[in-house]
Structure formats: C-alpha cells, structure tokens
Amino acid sequence: xxxxxxxxxxxxxxxxxxxxxxxxxxxxxxxxxxxxxxxxxxxxxxxxxxxxxxxxxxxxxxxxxxxxxxxxxxxxxxxxxxxxxxxxxxxxxxxxxxxxxxxxxxxxxxxxxxxxxxxxxxxxxxxxxxxxxxxxxxxxxxxxxxxxxxxxxxxxxxxxxxxxxxxxxxxxxxxxxxxxxxxxxxxxxxxxxxxxxxxxxxxxxxxxxxxxxxxxxxxxx
Length: 221
Ligand SMILES: [Zn+2]
Prior knowledge:
Blueprint lengths: L1 H11 L16 H7 L4 E5 L7 E8 L2 H13 L2 H18 L6 E4 L4 H7 L3 H13 L2 E2 L3 E3 L11 H8 L3 E3 L4 H6 L2 E8 L3 H12 L6 E7 L1 H5 L1
Parallel strand pairs: 2-8, 3-4, 3-7, 7-8
Antiparallel strand pairs: 1-2, 5-6
Helix pairs in contact: 3-4, 4-6
Zinc ion binds next to helix 2.
C-alpha cells in the first residue's frame, strides 16, 4: 500500500539526501563518505570472559544520526539501503564464510506499536537476504524501559539491568550456528551487554555483534 504512494510523493516533494537533507537523488557524495569506511572493532568487557567484539562502520555525527532516524521512525527506503550496506560491511568483519544467526536487539513494545514495525528485525532480514545468514528474534523487552538517549551512561546501565529475556524457542537451532547480536547504534555498550547477559542465561554465547554506527568515545577507550 505504502509502496504505491511513493511515485506520487516523489512528485510533490523533491528527493533529498537522508543525511544532510540537501536536494539529491539519493545519499549525497559528502554523506556517503561517512558510511564507506572499513568496519572498526570495539571490544566490550575487555579482559573478561564475557568479552564481546563489536564491528561497526559509521562514526556518529548529525548526518549519520539523520539516516538512523529516517529509517527507524519513518522507514525511509534510501536510509534503509545505507544501513543494510553498513551492517553487511560490519558483518564481513566477523567472518566471511560461516553462516550465522542474527539476533536483533528488540525495541520497546510501545515503540514497535507506534512505528507499526520492529525496525531492527526488518533491517536484519534485509541484511540476511544478502549475506545468507539466518535471523531469530529471540530477545524480548520484559518490562518498561526509559528512552536510553535521555540518560547518562550510569543511568543507561541501570535502566537496562534485567530488561531483556531470551525466549527459549529455537535454542537447538541456536546451538548449531554462531550468533551475532545486531543493533543500529553502539553508544555505551549497555544495550549489547544486557542482550549478551540474556543470551548467556540460556547458555547461548554470541561470537560478536555488529552495529551500523558507533559513538567516538568507545573507540578511544
Ligand atoms: Zn548529504
């Protein structure tokens, strides 16, 4: 239904770059540069048994944020293509030959209802079509959590403690394939740590995580 409206909307609103909003057929050359980087590796929980390697492509800035929001809140197709490509790039950082299972980070159920979709699940499915991986949405938010973007680093961790559950279905399938956690943005690592904890509680150890974008602070540490 929505697809059939696009040609009409494109006539009314000239196309714009989803990053900087300047008139452009798709993402402009200046914004493209932010997404055309080799993935970097960031280690969470360094020097611990629960170390988690995260591969991520774009460093967070206003133009990157705009693309993330355009896909997350409005389902903009061009933004979706950029994020899919970034996650594919990050995916290649983990392994080129193994077939893996993507486990998307879940959104708050309220946000899923408001948006009418689970954007990370949609994105994982798009990436998996191209990478040949599988997708299992087995982590659920089990209580009300506040919007992480409004909280300090300490508050973010506290907000998420015990917030995720791993549903026990398909655990046999999970045992057969390496698991990769997938999120749009790595900020403090609190979300991925909580997802990792929920999986470990079911005896599932992810081999790594991928995100489309990351903040600079974690790279420096
Ligand atoms: Zn641009």
